[in-house]
Amino acid sequence: MGLDITVMIVDWSWLGEVEERRRLSQLRDTWYADDTGLWDDDTPVVEGDWEWPRGPGGAFFGIYEFRRTCGSFKAHFWAGERWESLRDHADPVVRTGGDAFLGGLVWGGVDGESSHIDPGFFHADPKVSYGLLLARSPDSVRELASTWEGVRPRLHGLREAFAEHAAVPDGWVGDFDAFTDLLDDWGRVLTEASRRSWGVVGLSE
Prior knowledge:
The protein is built from seven helices and five strands, in the order E-H-H-E-E-H-H-E-H-H-H-E. It has helices spanning 12-15, 23-32, 74-86, 92-103, 138-151, 159-165, 176-196; strands at 6-10, 49-51, 61-65, 132-136, 199-203. The relative contact order is 0.20.
């Protein structure tokens, strides 16, 4: 089995009410609670849409179901790789925006060292923060959402370059539509989180 990812938008002020060491466990405990209804076997999951929990924790987080990913992190990883192949063929404005957007979420960056976790909110001890792949504060979310709004209308101009330099038949995010759908899904996540002044968390279980 490969690495999975669940992407949530989360009320940062709610988590901030407990000590740093307990924040991730509080989020997990609330997510796993039976009264959320998220674990009912007969609950349909709609790709490209939100799951909003029921119960006491329902006011504090929501889960986004990405299209064409089956919950796997591989799609997000390969979107970063496709961008790596594509970015030199994008105009400077799109390249700068794409670097910031994907580098802030799933891509390792030109040097492979981009961090996707804002420091100082979740505890840094690996035993406490296991499975934490992404943690962006409300401030970071606003910046990334703004970056997305600048990049989004320019993406259509990359179709031919993607086909020539980044397409991989039968691969994860192997064509331009799959690539832009994934980026658009991230844009939806960031836009909704920014609207609520919430953060974004990506967890692997």
